[in-house]
Amino acid sequence: MRFKLDQDNSEIGFIFNLKTYRKEALYGAGLVFSDRAFIFVEPNGPHHLRITLQSKKPAGREFLCALAGEFHNELLSQTLRWMVARHNKKTKEAIQAQALFAAHAQPQPAISNGKKS
Hints:
Layout: E1 4-6, E2 11-17, H1 23-32, E3 37-43, E4 48-55, H2 61-87, H3 89-105
Antiparallel strand pairs: 1-2, 2-4, 3-4
Helix pairs in contact: 1-2
């Protein structure tokens, strides 16, 4: 895991290849850290993104290195979520279609105004 540490600004920077990591997974991982850090995302060439996490409070080397490790773990988790979602897309769509068809096929109960006849 390679990153650039800037202790003076309490920030850590990464460059990710978009052929390896989905942009959505990178954004998702960044969102998880929005309570602890400001997230800056910028292009770095045609197939790379630079992501910088800047701690919301002054931070030392130990905190920033831990943040880098946690970010990478979350990125792996987000990547796996996207892989599972893509793999299960057809099954999910079939279940949704069945649910919509079943809901439409059942007669709707009459709405009562609460008065006895």
